[in-house]
Amino acid sequence: MDLSIIIPLYNEDESLPELAAWIERVMKENNYSYEVIMIDDGSTDDSWTVIEKLRAQNDAVKGIKFQRNYGKSAALNEGFKAAHGDVIITMDADMQDSPDEIPELRRMITEDKFDMVSGWKKKRYDNTFTKNIPSKLFNAAARRSSGIKLHDFNCGLKAYRKKVVKSVEVYGEMHRYIPILAKWAGFRRIGEKVVEHRARKYGVTKFGWERFVNGFLDLFSIMFVGKFGKRPMHFFGLWGTLAFLAGLVIFSYLAITKFFFFQTGLTQRPMFFFAIMMMIIGSQFFLAGFIGELIARNSPFKNSYLIEEKVGL
User: Fold this and answer.
1) Per-domain boundaries in the chain
2) Which of 8, 21, 230, 310 is the most buried (most CB within 10 A)?
3) What pLDDT is recorded for position 128?
4) CB 3 within 8 A of CB 35
5) H helices of the chain, where?
6) Contacts of the segment 251-260: beta carbons below 8 A, 24+ positions apart
7) What is the pLDDT of residues 111-166, one digit of tens each?
8) According to the CATH classification, is domain 3-228 in 3.90.550.10?
């Protein structure tokens, strides 16, 4: 199969018929074998009914319905697991991503040999103050911390080699950082393509201010997990050992001055308590690293979602 097109969605029943028709036209024009996997992330409108109707009209349309809302990362992860295409395309369901970009994205994967290609919405139709400026700050921080020179980490329109999506696990709110996850998995040929950003035709955006705060918190999390996720003792053990040794040195100094030089006084009491505190903190860090090591080696599956129904899968 040439392509798997994965579309996570939440309350997008108005846009789905038009989007599906547009994708079908592009696929026929290029003679691609394909599947469209729509993941209904607990919608409260008629999105699932629309997906069922689209499936009845086109066997290439497949669907997964979550029992409740889990978020975009969960939807993408389930879509990645279900995909069979040699190239996987992800796009949003709100009609702001153009299916006409798909052939060139696929060509960059198959001919230019990129592992993944991320869209860059260079010209946007979002509100400048509430979305564009925070996005620029977020992308600058992600570029600097990851070393990946992308302008738009959060663009929903991306293309992947099949091996990439089968090698990464997306959970929490980590969909913003799939390029970083891919890099940590050893896929370093990451490209970028300027893509069209269209004004929203139906409905309203489902994202608020909290996504920017969460975005920066997730960035810190993924950089830590990517570097120390398999060896947490290297982080916690190092700082725990340094803190414990610092406390032990101060405590030893105070003990020597007290028992051999008979120096006592009120000035030594704060240092004594500080030394004890450092030793306790050091021990706690060391134990945290040890527990983290056990969890890392015996962790259960991070992704477990209640799926109410499937069609075509």
Assistant:
1) 3-228, 232-298
2) 8
3) 53
4) yes
5) 16-29, 47-57, 72-82, 102-110, 133-146, 162-165, 178-184, 210-228, 232-259, 268-298
6) 251/275, 251/276, 251/279
7) 999 999 999 988 766 655 555 666 777 778 778 878 888 888 888 899 999 999 99
8) yes
